[in-house]
Design a protein that fits this description.
Bound molecules: zinc ion
Protein name: bis(5'-adenosyl)-triphosphatase
Number of helices: 13
Cofactor: Zn(2+)
Family: Belongs to the nucleotide pyrophosphatase/phosphodiesterase family.
Helix content: 25-40%
GO molecular function: bis(5'-adenosyl)-triphosphatase activity; metal ion binding
Oligomer: single chain
Largest sheet: 8 strands, mixed
Pfam family, one: Phosphodiest
Length: about 450
């Protein structure tokens, strides 16, 4: 059926296809490779709707000539380390092993915290992108991205700055652009602590302070673009600017005090708020029963009952009981509110979502996408770097329309094209039938005559 074949061909080339279409991005040929360098930038705690509420002249210029994704659905728990590791591994927290800011591994009897994160043991349930690209013979560079200064599968980033929160943004960028100017450096990561720091300190509803913090973030983006221009990197580098999570306002009248519900001798508090990790020291059911009725704004889950949608169950580092506070509520043992803004809550809450923007030769210009998942960013980056993906939870098709090399049409366009093609084919078919009917005497009459001749011949022979 020619019409069907035509439609199938059309659909295959219209973006329904899952093929990965390599090779049409502009590329710089550096050394023996044809991989365009990729810079991945994270501004910690950049809530998606800050873009609507505040002014970002530099960032807007960046994505108006590139791509903007309004919402990124991040991974539970919506904290810094789990999400930064999900971005570079494509895995949910339960699958990469960096489950929170504070962890306890019962098999190894080891503890992890933000100030005690240097043991490779914690990081090796997955392989981050900078390690994979180095295993292929390229180099990576990193300015403070979580994990880059730690040996993972025996490799740190090729060039890195040891984590120090007080290293200025400009110093981080200056080092990165110096490293990126080298041929083999193909993947670079840059991390900055704002607007997370101000969000915690003042709360995201503090317009005056957040305006200041976000103006500084935008100035930093301006500095980054200027520096990339000065060093000649700007036109030949793909850049992704994103974040790990959002932020929500907390308040002194939204406190959940565990001491009001359970004696401290009954459990060890491995991680605090807004998702508490509880290691019971007495009977698990007894501890759970006390906690589940502790406060209507806090849910208690036995590990095996944690909802599948959170992807936060299948890892030994998840404690036997977890407590999840409602949006804007804070769990404490006792005492007062520790900070005015927080994150870590359910990852379906829009207040927990960050954004993503991208710019560079590989990306479409002026393109806008409603949402992707944090775990999708990894396969996009693997595609950009021509790197084979490690097993992950992301989907390339969710991000591929961001790329200039992919022909993507939306569903209404596809339906329109299919109807249009069907109408054209129907019209053509009708025309052919009409033409046939109106044409000269058909060859069948000649055939009949020939047959008659043959019959005559046969009769004569007979
Ligand atoms: Zn934070």
């Amino acid at each position: 059926m020619p019409a069907c074949c035509f439609l199938i061909v059309l659909l295959v080339f219209s973006g329904f296809s899952t093929c990965h279409g390599h090779g049409t991005e502009n590329e710089t040929v550096l050394g023996n490779s044809t991989v365009t360098p990729l810079l991945l930038v994270s501004f910690d705690g950049f809530r998606a709707d800050y873009l609507k509420k505040y002014s970002f002249p530099n960032l807007e210029k960046f994505f108006s000539d590139g791509v903007l994704v309004d919402h990124v659905s991040n991974v539970f728990i919506t904290k810094t380390f789990p999400n930064h590791y999900s971005i570079v591994t494509g895995r949910y927290a339960e699958s990469h092993g960096i489950l929170s800011s504070n962890m306890y591994d019962p098999d190894a009897n080891k503890t992890f915290s933000l100030s005690n994160d240097f043991d490779s043991f914690w990081w090796e349930q997955a392989t981050p992108l900078w390690v994979s690209i180095q295993q292929k013979g390229f180099k990576s560079a990193a300015a403070m991205w979580p994990g880059t200064d730690i040996k993972i599968h025996n490799l740190t980033a090729s060039y890195f700055l040891k984590y120090q929160h007080n290293v200025p943004f400009q110093e981080r960028v200056d080092n990165l652009t110096k490293w990126l100017s080298q041929d083999l450096v193909k993947f670079a990561t840059l991390y900055w602590e704002e607007p997370d720091y101000s969000g915690h300190l003042y709360g995201p509803d503090n317009i005056k302070e957040m305006t200041k913090a976000l103006k500084q973030v935008d100035d930093h983006i301006g500095y980054l673009i200027d520096k990339l221009n000065q060093t000649g990197l700007w036109s030949n580098i793909n850049i992704i600017i994103t974040s790990d999570h959002g932020m929500v306002q907390c308040a002194p009248d939204r406190l959940i005090r565990l001491d009001d519900c359970i004696g401290p001798k009954n459990y060890t508090l491995v991680d605090m708020t807004p998702v508490s990790a509880i290691l019971p020291l007495t009977n698990v059911t007894y501890v759970y029963d006390l906690l589940k009725k502790c406060n209507p704004h806090m849910k208690a889950y036995m590990k095996e009952d944690i909802p599948d949608r959170l992807h936060y169950k299948n890892n030994r580092r998840i404690q036997p009981i977890i407590l999840v506070a409602d949006e804007g509520w804070t769990i404490v043992r006792n005492g007062s509110l520790p900070r005015f803004g927080d994150h870590g809550y359910d990852n379906t809450l829009p207040s927990m979502h960050p954004f993503l923007a991208a710019h560079g030769p590989a990306f479409r210009k002026g393109y806008r996408l409603n949402s992707i998942n944090t775990v999708d960013i990894y396969s996009l980056m693997c595609h950009l770097l021509r790197l084979e993906e490690q097993p992950n939870n992301g989907t390339f098709t969710n991000t591929k329309c961001m790329l200039a090399s992919q022909w993507c049409v939306n569903l209404p366009e596809v339906i329109g094209i299919v109807i249009g093609v069907f109408m054209v084919l129907t019209t053509l078919t009708c025309l052919i039938i009409i033409m046939k009917n109106k044409g000269p005497p058909s060859s069948r009459s000649f055939a009949r005559l020939e047959l008659q001749d043959d019959d005559d011949d046969d009769a004569l022979i007979g």
